[in-house]
Amino acid sequence: MEISKLFEEISAKMKGDFNISAQFQHNGNRGSYREDSLKSFLTNGKLPDTFGIASGEIISQYSQVSKQMDAIIYDKSKSIIFEASESTKIFPIESVLGVIEVKSQLSKTKLIEGLENIKSLKTLHAPQLITKNYGDHVRIGYYNNPPFGVIFAYSLSGNSLESLAKNLKEWCESNPPEVWPNFICILDEGTINFRNGLNDVLISSEIQETSSISFLQHKENSLFEFTSALITLCANRKIDIFNIQAYKNIGIMVHNLRVKFENKIKNRESQTIRLSDSFIQNMYENRGQPILYKDLVAKFTDGMGLIGKELFDDRVDKVYVYDPENLPTMSEILSKNTEKKPLVEILQNTPMFSGGTYVIINEETYYIPLYYWNESNIVLFD
Fold first, then answer.
1. Which residue from 195, 204, 246, 357 has the fewest beta carbons nearer than 10 Å?
2. Strand partners, 260
């Protein structure tokens, strides 16, 4: 039997399942049945056994929460699931391969609903460095592809693939390509996808602002096209074993910037404070060039003869430094202490470069002297 013929038969069964689900009067029951039908199809040998599919919400390390997702695909061997209740499952974005939004009839309204849900997923993505060893001496690192978002519908809603493609184009014109869907399929009708030139593109990193929108009437082969695309998307989203330690220090979003504070800073009233959004945005936009971390350490310890500073000589990572006033280092301050004043008195009354804190912005490190944590630059940490 030809594979395409087999998928035609499976497609017919799914259509029958959908017709049964239509008999449920409660919208929740109908939705659960149509989603369960698709999940059953995919978990019955269409995707690797290590993959799981469940409904729920997705969270990030930056206090973000997605909308409720119909079908979340995750790797059971590398993931972790938080259960807020029996009916609510929470997935860290790092564990998620992608999502499928399942619709009974794909009207323009339901299309926009699905697109906004996928957008709420894709805005959670932060580049994750995946490393792989090749032999004993070669280790290669690369950033993984963003999670995918797919819309699957059982039927049209008195419209057409062409009209839906136009609706998608209108939505894309007001949203960046980073949040666009990867693929849309309507059972027994066809598919809508993106193209670069003459080539169809599926992977999130390949979808660009210049990508065009294409639709094809696959009819009874639509389910085959959907499954093929889904397998490709899963294969191209690499995830690592989930590291729960990353969630010990929850960050925030400042506009489109992912921000984490390495240390908790408190004011005189023992309230936790942080740098204000405007300060963070200004610091990021005027960041200049980073320096080697070992050079930052050298500036801290210059002329002080501290033991152990040579331990940083092999570090090749870099850090941005915020110091527009070019504050003096401790060694510079001490060298000017000709009156031999007590050290405590000097350090309490003199702004200096040392003694700062670190902020992580979009996975890059920034060093800020505490002098700049003043009343005009800080807010309470909610």
1. 195
2. 360
Single out the residue of 266, 294, 265 nearest to residue 368, CA to CA. 265
pLDDT of 338: 64
**Closest C-alpha to 329, from 359, 304, 358:** 304
Most confident of the following: 51-55, 208-212, 223-227:
208-212
User: CA 299 to CA 301: how far, in whole Å?
Assistant: 6
Beta pairing, strands 252-254 & 318-321: unpaired
Report which secondary-structure segment, H or E, holds 321: strand 318-321
Instruction: Give 310-367 pLDDT, tens digit per residue.
Output: 666 677 789 999 999 999 887 777 777 666 666 666 666 678 888 889 999 999 999 9
Kind of pairing between the strands at 272-275 and 265-266: antiparallel
Residue 36 Rama label (left phi>0; alpha psi -120 to 50; beta) = alpha
What is the sign, positive or negative, of the torsion defined by CA atoms of 146, 147, 152, 157? negative
Residue 112: partners with Cβ closer than 8 Å, 6 or more residues away:
167, 171
What single string gives the DSSP state of each residue in 269-308?
TS-EEEE-HHHHHHHHHT----EEHHHHHHHHHTTT--TT
Per-residue pLDDT tens over the stretch 144-202: 789 999 999 999 999 999 999 999 999 999 999 999 999 999 998 999 999 999 999 99
Assigned token pair, 275: 């740098």
Beta bridge pairs of residue 52: 74
Contact 191, 184 (CB under 8 A): yes
Count of all residues that appear for the chain in the document? 382
Residue 379 to residues 140, 322, 364, Cα–Cα distance (Å): 41, 18, 22
